[in-house]
């Protein structure tokens, strides 16, 4: 990439963050890149991209700022997601985060074909966010991630047996990550619910209509 394109992506990130009224959590700027300016984030992302040696998705000239940012992020996804799809990527994610103290199981029904890049990207991020929250806060020993695709509706559930929490307190310690999950579901025209009680684990349920994503 040349200097002019680097500058344009830095400007693009600033435009999204400042002018399009998109939550920084949705853009993944508030987690790994907390405290950095949009321009600094762009430089960091571009550096990672140079090291990734993966071809970028092709964008049309009429692509919106949000589509361009999504494309940049998608190209930084694990190779298992870009090359093999959601089932392989989620399975790899579960294996990577499983340990002697935490068993992460997965099951998939009806996902025989690839989904759109947009859905795969956001669903992967939802599961990743949920696992991060469970590891940080839940003190769980078991997690079940369930995918079920039936008649064009993708149902995703993530359940743990941790300490749980009061859902009215989601704006506190767990709130940031959980709000990101709700926002991503909304971006896909989906529905989402988070159910939990103290000492009774937590359940995240997402329903995504795939017909609206081609």
For this entry, give a set of tags.
disordered N terminus; alpha+beta; 2 domains; five-stranded mixed β-sheet; 214 residues
Radius of gyration computed on alpha carbons: 18 Å
Shape: globular
* Strand order, largest beta sheet: 1-2-3-5-4
CATH topology of the largest domain: Heat Shock Protein 90
Class by helix and strand content?
alpha+beta
In CATH, the architecture of the largest domain is 2-Layer Sandwich
Order of helical and strand elements: HHHHHEHEEHEE
DSSP helical segment count:
7
Strand content: 15-25%
What is the averaged pLDDT score? 75
The total count of strands amounts to 5
- CATH level-four homologous superfamily name of the largest domain: Histidine kinase-like ATPase, C-terminal domain
> Class of the largest domain in CATH?
Alpha Beta
Report helical residue fraction: 40-55%
Distance between the termini: 30 Å
Number of structurally distinct domains:
2
Largest sheet: 5 strands, mixed
Give the uncertain stretches in residue-range form.
1-7, 14-36, 47-59
Could you characterize the architecture of this molecule?
This protein has 214 residues and is an alpha+beta fold. It folds into two domains: 3-74, no CATH class; 79-213, Heat Shock Protein 90. The chain is 44% helix and 18% strand. It has seven helices and five strands. The protein has helices spanning 3-19, 38-52, 65-74, 79-84, 86-97, 117-138, 175-187; strands at 103-109, 142-150, 153-160, 191-196, 202-209. It has a five-stranded mixed beta sheet with strand order 1-2-3-5-4, with helices on one face. A hairpin with a 5-residue loop joins strand 4 (191-196) and strand 5. Helix 1 (3-19) crosses helix 2 (38-52) and helix 5 packs parallel to helix 6 (117-138). The radius of gyration is 18 Å and the shape is globular. The two termini are 30 Å apart. Mean pLDDT is 75; it is low at 1-7, 14-36 and 47-59.
